[in-house]
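agent> Task received from the user: take the single chain below, predict its 3D structure, and emit structure tokens. No templates, no multimer pairing.
agent> Plan: (1) validate residues, (2) run structure prediction, (3) serialize to tokens, (4) report one or two observations.
agent> Step 1 OK, no nonstandard residues flagged.
tool_call: predict_structure(input=
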Amino acid sequence: MTLEGKVGLVTGASSGIGLAIAREVHRLGATVVIAARSRERLDEAVASVGERCTTVVADVTQAQDVERLVGGTIEAHGGIDVLVANAGVYVGGDIWESDPDALDQLLRTNVNGVVRTVRAALPHMIERGSGDVVVTSSVSGHQAIYWEPVYSASKHALQAFVHGVRRQLLSTGVRMGAIAPGVVLNELWGVSDSAEIEDKVGRAEGIRSEDVADAVGYMLTRPPHVNIRDLVILPRDQPI
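)
tool_result: status=success, residues=240
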């Protein structure tokens, strides 16, 4: 199956997993709208996706940005068939040494931003009787990881959100699921050198953003009667 003739919207898509997913959705035939906070980085990203790709500068923590992003995509392209709610930030370390403002921003982005974006797109999908929503979670959403407790809490919240909303969507024709990666060798993990990435991949210590995108492509191209609720993807030798 392909995504020919469909429209995909990917948030947090100026780099890393989001950009890789945008490329995969485009490769599968869809028109793609990519969103992120930085105009400069979006302009760099769009050229690597393809001709059926446009950009929108948007901060998913801001209600007006989300409404403009979703409404503008529907108006410009006639609808949204695929939403990948990927925007997120990372803060790790001991809680007592962390910046509380950074933690607030993490929760606003990773939880509230995803909820806002999904909530804005669902009425349109439900009205059409079809659509796919994929939320970028983490293996941290399946277990509490002690060196990133607030990040882990945010991903646990997303797991509960995905599971609950999926059940609300029964009989609507709309599918919903979460992709939960382990160690992904990209900027979020502080890895950008291609040689270092290949070295760690060769030792099965991490996976590429493109590996995650390939898994999302698989989720999106299942037959209509199949819904993959959770897909956990790990490096072969990651212990947790």
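agent> Step 4: summary for the user.
The chain has one domain: 7-182+208-232.
agent> Done.
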